[in-house]
Automatic annotation (TrEMBL):
Originating organism: Candidatus Onthousia excrementipullorum
Protein name: Uncharacterized protein
């Protein structure tokens, strides 16, 4: 039994060829014969056979190697038979029993004689999660995925990193490429489940439309089930639906792919139902009960568009969010005296901008920006590098500023500048707006700060908090203030995050002075 004698379609061969060769040639630029030669060449290295198979697949190959007769219609090994056939490591012979191709037999037997099953098992457990997660999500940021796997399996992140980029099995299912991500305003590595490449743009749009932060409650068993079976049969509703789908005459298997895609995108199911209704073999079958079950089952299927939540969980989250927002709305009265006022704010800006001008001119940070002191309508983006430089060695820089006193401030003003040495710069969470203060949550404390000219709830609306900001805090006029410059991040925070912030705000120590 030879590969070259099997009447594979070119599309089938190309699917495998393009999965195992990252630098594969375009479909039109390579023949089926050449692709088969490249596949045989790939498998001639027995390590590649080991690396592209799961623990279950290796055990199945051992059964065949040991002479066990497994018929093509034996339903004990559906996953193994299907995937090993797609990988062209097995085919059925004239007796309709599975066997190895002549061109690959020696390499497979060598692989089976040298394989370390304990190592394969560990890699399989890692791949079950990694691939199962990508299958649920459709696509995902690689570095957070590595961090999740590292934490979940207690493996060094460098080991997971190498696995993700080098492992043949992971890369059989998932392609990694650099993609521009608007949130980060840069290209970053993305893992795309290969079967969903044709709906990736639609998935991104749907995910943006729902704008859900975070993922569903972590369920490792679900990812494992979906890796092997496409569906989570631990869910009784999904299992019942699958059985009834398979009982439909001449149709079940052809519906699996569109159902998976509709679940991934959380699309309106009416077009799916219409396409099922129009199947000729089902023309005289009553489908009302089946469609009712379809809706219930698909409400239980995790969706990439919903960041891994199933539609039922999403509806529950929406209800929870609405109730939480209503509660917050009823409690919120608005800020009334949470800023210093124009006169005090003006005195702070005079001192602060004088200091920033001194830093910029002395250390040549932005040579295009000559004047900062007593200037209006300055570009915050130009000031940020100067502020960052100040905080790298603020004690030394402020001492030098006070000594040089470039704008001839009196001793009282210089004392205020001296206290800037107590300032802190970092990332904070705006946790709550009180009548007289804005609460900024840090790692283990809450800073109760004042705005400058205006209350901070006029800068960042109440409905947008909690939100993460980067800013600088200083002691001034007996309170903590921020420097008037807030860098925000276009990240939507969910209700769960808001509740965590609320809990920490209630429990952490409040600081009214630096």
């Amino acid at each position: 039994m030879k590969i070259v004698d099997n009447p594979y379609k070119k599309e089938f061969v190309f699917d495998l060829y393009s999965r195992i060769y990252p630098d594969f040639k375009d479909y039109e630029k390579i023949t089926k014969k050449k692709m088969i030669e490249k596949i045989i060449e790939f498998y001639s290295d027995y390590n590649n056979i080991i690396d592209i198979c799961t623990y279950r697949e290796i055990k199945f190959l051992k059964r065949i190697a040991n002479g066990e007769k497994i018929a093509w219609d034996d339903d004990r090994f559906e996953f193994e038979k299907d995937i090993l056939r797609k990988k062209m490591l097995i085919s059925h012979n004239d007796s309709l029993e599975y066997d190895f191709y002549d061109e690959l037999k020696d390499s497979i037997l060598l692989a089976l004689s040298r394989v370390k099953m304990s190592e394969v098992k560990k890699k399989t457990e890692l791949n079950e999660f990694l691939v199962g997660f990508c299958k649920v999500m459709g696509n995902f940021l690689i570095y957070p995925l590595i961090d999740m796997a590292s934490s979940l399996f207690n493996i060094d992140s460098k080991v997971v990193f190498d696995h993700v980029f080098d492992n043949k099995l992971f890369n059989y299912y998932v392609v990694i490429y650099d993609k521009y991500v608007e949130t980060f305003d840069e290209e970053t590595p993305i893992g795309l489940y290969r079967d969903y490449y044709y709906v990736e743009d639609e998935l991104d749009e749907e995910r943006k439309e729902y704008a859900i932060s975070g993922t569903q409650t972590f369920d490792l068993k679900q990812y494992i089930n979906i890796f092997y079976d496409d569906f989570n049969f631990d869910n009784k509703i999904v299992k019942k639906f699958y059985k009834e789908l398979m009982d439909l005459p001449f149709f079940g298997f052809s519906a699996l792919e569109p159902i998976r895609v509709f679940a991934l995108l959380n699309k309106d199911r009416e077009p799916l139902k219409d396409s099922i209704s129009n199947v000729p073999a089902l023309a005289h079958v009553s489908l009302d009960d089946f469609f009712e079950l379809l809706d219930k089952a698909m409400d239980e299927m995790p969706s990439g568009a919903l960041n891994g939540m199933c539609p039922r969980e999403y509806k529950e989250k929406l209800k929870e969010k609405a109730e939480y927002e209503f509660k917050r709305e009823m409690e919120y009265t608005g800020q009334k005296n949470a800023c210093l006022g124009d006169d005090v704010a003006k005195s702070f800006y005079n001192l602060y901008f004088s200091l920033l001008e001194y830093v910029n001119n002395k250390y040549h940070i932005d040579t295009s920006l000559k004047k900062i002191y007593k200037q209006e309508y300055l570009d915050p983006n130009q000031l940020m590098p100067i502020i960052e430089y100040l905080f790298e060695d603020k004690e030394k820089i402020i001492d030098a500023y006070i000594k040089d006193n470039p704008h001839n401030f009196n001793s009282e003003d210089l004392e205020k500048v001296s206290k800037f040495k107590q300032g802190i710069r970092g990332m904070f969470t705006i946790a709550k707006y009180e009548e007289d203060y804005t609460a900024l949550l840090a790692s283990d404390r809450v800073y109760m700060i004042k705005g400058l000219n205006s209350n901070i709830d006029e800068v960042i609306p109440y409905h947008d908090i909690p939100c993460i900001v980067t800013t600088s805090l200083f002691p001034y006029d007996g309170v903590i203030i921020y420097d008037g410059l807030l860098s925000t991040y276009p990240i939507s925070m969910g209700t769960s995050f808001a509740k965590i912030v609320e809990k920490e705000y209630n429990e952490d120590m409040k600081y009214y002075h630096l």
